[in-house]
Protein: Plasmid partition protein
Organism: Staphylococcus aureus
Amino acid sequence: MEIITFAAIKGGVGKTTLSYNFSEYLASVGKKVLLIDMDHQCNLSQLLNVYEQENTVLSIFNKIDGLNINEEVKIHKVKTNIDLISGFLRLDEYERVMSTADGKDMQLYMWLDDNYDKYNIEKYDYIIIDTHPDFSTSTRNAIAVSHKVISPNKPSGFSDDSNSNIEYRIDKLKNDLIDFRTRESYVTAKLYYVGNMVKHNTKSSNHFIEEMNSNNKYITYFPDKELITKSVMEKKPIVDFSKDKNILSKNRTFFKDFVKSCEVIKKM
């Protein structure tokens, strides 16, 4: 099983859209996926038509004193090969209470360990975690359990600052979460960058492509395509659009590149 977190310090880079469509791609090739919505905006949960505000991701933190959480986590079976632990709209409020709690950044790590058999976590090939665009307690929890962190960027002129910011914060988290017996960090995730919303043949996008080519942490990129926006608006994944012969015939190169980029992320 592999755990992948999609994380970004700044918003508007398409993180949730990528989490959603990458997970749907994995499911389409027969992989069993557990999605965890750690973003209090709950956009990922809403894309999958889950709106419940009980038995949510908040319950992962139920061992922290002062939160008074008495609910168990519920795993929603949303479609073939995709399950979901839904987001909680007020998670950010609870994170303020967590900020001074001991072990606050290891709650997801411990929850997975404690509930591995109860929820049959072993059956999943992937756990995909969507996070809020920040480095809050929930984001740190996600990174602490992950094998890979995928951080999207779009052409903006500020990607270097964003990259150095998340690198600094992950390095600090590695130093903070140390096993004092072995002196090794619990944080072992490898960080990769993914370009997103890259327009065709514009000055800013061409400059961004040059920037990606000069940084080996960038592993692939996704274009700025109306179909990607449509997938969110209609709550329909890219892989489903590819089954429409008319859409496929007009966007064959895009679908081919989409699969290629998903495979790159999968195989890193």
Summary: The first strand starts at residue 2 and ends at 6. Residues 109 and 145 are 6 Å apart (CA to CA).
